[in-house]
Amino acid sequence: MPVPADAAPSAVEDAGPVADPAAGAGEQSANPAGDESATDESATDESATDEPTVDGSPIDDEVGDEPVVPATDEPVTPATDEAAADEPTTDAAPEPTRAEQAAAAQQAVEEAAAARAAADQLAAETAEEAEARRVAAEQAAADLAEVKRWIAERAAAEQAAAEEAARLTPEDEAAAAAAQAAADLAEVRRWAAEKEAAEQAAAVQAAAEQAAFERAEAERAAALQAEADRMAAERAEVEQAVLAEAAARRSAEQEAAARAADEAEARRTAEREEARRAAQEAEAERMAAERAEADRAAAVQAEADRAAAQAQAQAESESEAQAEADRATAARAAEERAEAARAAEQHRDARPATPAATPLAALPGQRVAGARPTPGPRPTPAPRPAAPEPAPVPEPAASGATASAPRPSRRDRRAGGRRRGRAVLAAVLVLAVAAAAVVLGLQFVGDRADTGLAEGAEQVPDAVLPVLSDPAPVLTELSGSAPRPDPAVLSSVLTPLLADPALGGGLSAQVVDVATGAVLFDRDGGDPGTPASTAKLLTALAALTTLDPADTLTTTVVAGAIPGEVVLVGGGDPTLSTTAPSQNYPGAATVAELAAEVQQSLGGAPVTRVVVDNSLFTGPLAAPGWGAGDAPSTYAAPVTATAVDGARVDPDGPMRSGAPGTDAGEALAAALGVPDAPVALGEAPAGARVLGSVDSAPVVRLVEQALSQSDNLLAESLGRHVAIARGLPADFAGAAQAVTAAVADAGLDTTGLTMSDGSGLSATDLVPARLLTELLRGVADGSIPDTGGLLSGLPVAGYDGTLADRPGTGQAGVVRAKTGTLDGVHDLAGTVLTDDGRLLAFAVLADGATGGLVAAEAALDDVATALAACGCR
Questions:
Q1: Which residues contact 521 (CB under 8 A, 6 or more apart)?
Q2: CA distances (Å), 420 to each of 312, 325, 462, 872, in order?
Q3: Bridge-partner residues for 827, per DSSP?
Q4: In 10 A of CB 650, how many CB atoms?
Q5: What is the DSSP letter of 379?
Q6: Are 569 and 555 in contact (CB under 8 A)?
Q7: Per residue in 796-840, pLDDT tens?
Q8: Residue 512: strand pairing partners
């Protein structure tokens, strides 16, 4: 009986190499078809070799080239039919069914898929492992090819056996089947032995590889741990280095801060010393000037005294001469009267029967020359007949030995008196006043006295009292009907004056009639020019129209963050004074007042530290366009919310401080009685308790002071308060924006206006002369309300402010104007009252001046003088 085709093993077990690719590098799969009988009978048709089958079914190779793994490890033994039951084949295993073979094939496919998944899972391993997988995959492919070849050969052998069986007799078939079964059983046992040996070798190899893998893993873990430890050490080292560097940087910053503080303190000390030296030099110069003035005054007084002495001597000489003349005149008059009496006596003796004539009676208060009173009782006079007309008295001779000089007339005496000098005139005035007092006194007692004069009173019949009357007006009365200057005539007057070389070229100017707004003169009035301090007019207008003119600026002291600490909170008031009263700002609050409130609130608790809070103002301390030497200087200082005495180093000195806030804190510490307490800049704690506060003078007074004295720091502070009121940053840019907006809101055309600060100290400020005259006219005619403080703050020529020593006109007081001075810039803008009583607004901006300060100011004063004196009709 022929051997069935499925009596041979259907597949080779190679799950080991597939499950562990690394283990199959040197492992060879068993070849169950290695016997020579199978090899000799391998001739099959092309369909059998091209399409290997198991039990007539194609092998499923969807898993690629992976080998088919049998479903069981038990060897397959060929079955025999009933005719061969008596054959000695008791050791043969039962033949697997087709279902079992299919199940085994399916399980092999699943295990192959699992093996491939396991292979994919190991795809991220090292390069050595990837190489091992590649070798295992090649081995598996070779195993699969061998299995396919064996299946093909087995199929061919079965086909050949079937054909052979068809030619054999049943006995031959049974013998052949038995022989084949025995051969198959031997082959299976050999294959099983090889398989077991291979599995054992694979297990050993797998164990070795597992051990190697674990060692590698351990080494890798150790290496990772070592790397982690190294990185941790490096990180710790880096962190330590960073900490050390940060500490070094902090130390360097602290040292730099300390050096900066020392340098600042040294600078402040040097500045104070310089200011003190400057003050001493100024004081020495002032004292020298005062001494020189005193010497000059003494010389003048000595000359006056000498002149007065000479005048007195001359007056005494003239008095002696006058007395001598009076005596001579009196003697001559007496002689004449005696001669007249003798003549009358002779005439009476010569007349017969004529009653004795009564001697010539003397006038009241006079005696007849040569007559003496008769002693004894006075005889009773008889009735006196009518006396004859007395003979005429002869005229005195015009010349002769007995004639004396004629008595000087009143007119001659008055002329001589004027030559006696001021001393005699003063004496006469004193005597006149005394005489007036005597006369008034006599009039007072005259109503109660029987006589006209008090006993012993002396009459002064020639005394003349001064006439008292109302004083004459200093300024021409402002009149709406006063004639307006003719523009053509005014131009002919101003053009030559504006051509003064001291004013340079490129200047702009404009003159406007306040009453009508008519432009009387214009020279590039719309072109922007450098305003210098005339820009304070814009800041003043903004302050008066944005803020309440009656408002004040408040400086406050609050409790600090630690016991003993107080915080001086700046309110933007630079007029806070260290003296009482202020030497620079009338009506200013004082540090002493503030310190008294703080001490009362503390109730005796000591102050150990003063903090100065400047946070109200922000931004840089100096504006764009300020020079390097502008802050500090004698005219400007860094703009901070806290300052004393206008940031002056000394209240009575010109030099300003470079650290106004710190100076204010030191002043408060001194006023609190702790001058050595440390002072630092900082901020007040939120919600801190208020210990004291003081208020400045009203805003309108601050505006006047800023304009009159051209105070740059005060103007900058007012500009920042305008910015705060308008919700803008309290810095230079915010103040400039706020002032510009306020000027526009007042109805003025801001075309050409560019501001970088509020004081005009910046060289980048630009203002047209037209805008200044429009502003002055609007303030002067009242069309811009609540701005009267601007006019009252303008310096008055020859009287106060920056025009105190510049009369401007022959009649001081008619020009009220704001000055402006920078290097090469000389400006003047204000109002002027003409001789006819017409009020004009004017502005002259000479920002290309080439002459010196004195020459440029004199040229501008000439312009103002011409405007005041010009009827120009």
A1: 487, 490, 491, 494, 509, 510, 511
A2: 7, 19, 18, 46
A3: 820, 845
A4: 16
A5: P
A6: yes
A7: 988 888 988 886 555 577 899 999 999 999 999 999 999 888 999
A8: 519, 841
φ, ψ of residue 746 to 5 degrees: the values are: -80, 0
Rounded to whole angstroms, the Cα distance separating 769 from 534 reads: 10
Q: How confident is the model at residue 313 (pLDDT cuts 50, 70, 90)?
A: confident
Both tokens of residue 448? 């109660």
More confident residue, 300 or 706: 706
| Cα pseudo-dihedral 332, 335, 341, 347, rounded to 10 | -100
Residues 538 and 535: their CA atoms lie apart, in Å, by: 5
Question: What pLDDT does residue 446 have?
Answer: 43
Percent of the chain with pLDDT over 70: 66
Query: Using CB atoms within 10 A of its CB, is residue 415 exposed (0-12), middle (13-18) or buried (19+)?
Result: exposed
Structure tokens at 60: 């499923």
Q: How far is CA 341 from CA 17, 67, 356, 374, in A?
A: 192, 195, 14, 17
Active-site annotation holds for 148: no
pLDDT reported for residue 459: 59
Give the active site residue among 10, 533, 582, 756: 533
Tokens 């009459």 belong to residue: 459
127: left (phi over 0), alpha (psi -120 to 50) or beta: alpha
Output the pLDDT for position 615: 96
The more confidently predicted of residues 116 and 86 is 116
Contact 140, 14 (CB under 8 A): yes
Q: At what angle do helices 421-446 and 410-418 cross, to 10 degrees?
A: 120
Select from 726, 656, 710 the least CA-distant residue to 536.
710
Spatial contact of 77 and 188, defined as CB atoms under 8 Å apart? yes
Going by C-alpha positions, the residue among 863, 862, 867, 860 that lies closest to residue 532 is 860
Q: How confident is the model at residue 207 (pLDDT cuts 50, 70, 90)?
A: confident
What is the mean predicted confidence (pLDDT) over 537-542? 97
The strand ranges marked E within 80-199 are none
Catalytic residue among 29, 508, 710, 717: 710
Residue pair 829/507 in contact (Cβ under 8 Å)? The answer is no
C-alpha–C-alpha distance, residues 866 and 752, integer Å: 29
Q: Which tokens go with 470?
A: 């109302």
11-31 tens-digit pLDDT? 333 434 333 443 443 434 334
Alpha-carbon gap, residue 157 to 163, rounded angstroms: 10
Q: What residues contact 434, with CB distance under 8 A and at least 6 apart?
A: none
Contact present, 105 and 68 (Cβ < 8 Å):
yes
C-alpha distance from residue 440 to each of 431, 436, 616 (Å)? 14, 6, 68
pLDDT tens for each residue of 208-238: 888 888 888 888 888 888 888 888 888 888 8
| pLDDT tens track for 596-610 | 999 999 999 999 999
853 contact partners, CB below 8 Å, separation of at least 6: 821, 826
Strands (E), 682-790: 690-695, 767-768
β-partners of residue 559 are: 566
pTM of the model: 0.51
Question: For residues 483-502, b (16+ Cβ closer than 10 Å) or e, as one string?
Answer: ebbebeebbebbeebbebeb
The helix (run of H) or strand (run of E) holding residue 211 is helix 170-350
Please work out, in degrees rounded to the nearest 5, the angle formed at the alpha carbon of residue 658 by the alpha carbons of 655 and 664.
90
Tell me the pLDDT band of 99, cut-offs 50, 70 and 90.
low
Q: Between 721 and 196, where is the model more confident?
A: 721
Give the integer Cα–Cα distance in Å for 622 and 633. 12
State the average pLDDT over residues 2-17.
40
> In Å, how far are 347, 351, 363 from 340, measured between CA atoms?
10, 17, 14
